[in-house]
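Hey all, quick one. A colleague (J.T.) asked me to put the nicotinamide-adenine-dinucleotide job into the tracker so the inputs and the structure tokens live in one place instead of scattered across chat threads. No bug as far as I know, just bookkeeping. Sequence used:
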Amino acid sequence: MTGRRFDIDGVAVSGDHFIGGERVGSERTFTNRSPLDWAMTIGEIARGEEETAGLAVDAALDAFDAWVGLGVEGRAAILHRLADVIDDNIDALARVECLDMAMLFDSLKARVIHRGAENFRNYADLATGFEERRWSSKGTANQVHRMPAGPAVIITPWNAPWLLSTWKLAPALAAGNPVILKPAEWSPLSASLLADLSLEAGLPPGVLNVVQGIGEEVGAALVSDPRVRRVSFTGSPEAARHIGVAAARNIVPFTAELGGKGPFVVFEDADLDAAAKKAAWQYDDSGQVCLAGTRLIVQESVAPGFLERFHAYVDTHVLGDSRDPNTTISPMIHPEHLARVDGFVTRAREAGDTIARGGRVWTEDGLWYEPTLIIPSSNDSEVVQREVFGPVLTFQTFTDENDAVGLANSTDYGLSAIVYTSSADRAERVGRQIRAGIVWTNCFLIRDLTAPFGGCGISGIGREGGDYALDFHSDLKTFQVLEGTVT
Ligand code: NAD
């Protein structure tokens, strides 16, 4: 059954799969609701099965040769057109993403959707700008070629679905791989709208396929298909373990961008006000941000001054509807997730941790959780060691630099870290010692798209960003000719 299309604030969005350039339905569906009003059903979404996964890989394989045949310049031209089409549809994409996953509308409209367009532009330019390494060695002329690898499966989580899917799609497509994208079941719609826009931009049928459904069902079928040559995943370590095993069975390269438990370290020489303001900002998107600095680790000597400023900034937050320009904290994605977050806080309370602020569901009839600060009774507390993925921060103090680095590195995660200091030497020393894929000093979330991105420990495997992602999506080949044998 096909033809599930619904109207979101004047924007028509399909609830079907998008395979080989056409809408394809499934007998079974799942219900999509909006976190802005849980009583409201957005629509029924096709629930893909093994057969759907097979069809999507067929379509990607069928499109492979023609996509490769366009060459890097031909592909880049289409990706630039796609970026332009996205920029022409910022308002529609922002409306859909806002209703589907509750990110703040103003920020989507001003920044986030356009960043998706930039992902395509950036990778189109990087791929065309690639210079094959050439050198002479042992009497031979050597070159390194990038060969497109084949169909790539991209699986994304429900938080930041637009940003993450465009960030992962762009290098795969620029490298010459047709893609099957499976968005998360809690926020499936911006990917569906992107599929329509890809047709408008002239992306050949089968180059981008979008399959909807449940991770353990169609997601598992996709990553197990032996014809798939790359798996790029963003989500939880739990799902990554299953997906990694499936990829390994088929000897398929796999990248995983997983959870975080970032330290937010404030030294006594820091601009305390700037640090406190940025710390209060870690509640944005209701804390559903993998890169957030959720463990505040502050030098003892400035802890009272920091806390006073921090509370003052948190007091200015406005919980509300994401479409309201005054809102700074949007609702959480799903009642199940709200209950999961509340479970962490309840267990922390029972274990003797101190709830210094918040610690409750905000209203009975919505999905907001109060911005919460917990002073743990020990560094082993669950709320310090496990990712909550909600508006819950912990607060700890340290005496000296070694102590700070020890606390920063004391979890199994290693995605990101934030350090506030006014000393360049300290920034360098501490930055080098922290085990994380990115360390921000006196800033947060600013990222050059060409920089490597990924995690250490259980925060992930591999690096995305810049040439790292293009290399991942390619099979690198060394091409060698005996010198003097060809003219
Ligand atoms: P999740 O792992 O439950 O789901 C992510 C995606 O994987 C979904 O599309 C889901 O359907 C799919 N999936 C689940 N099990 C699968 C399986 N067995 N086979 C194939 N696909 C499967 O994660 P989530 O709850 O959607 O997202 C939250 C997590 O994502 C958090 O841990 C967060 O930190 C992490 N995250 C990481 C980054 C990063 O860049 N490192 C960015 C955003 C979110």
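Adding what we noticed when we looked at it: The chain has two domains: 5-258+455-478, 263-441. The pocket of nicotinamide-adenine-dinucleotide is lined by residues 155-160, 164, 182, 184-185, 215-216, 219-220, 223, 234-236, 239, 242-243, 257-260, 290, 387, 389, 415, 455, 460 (CB under 6 Å).
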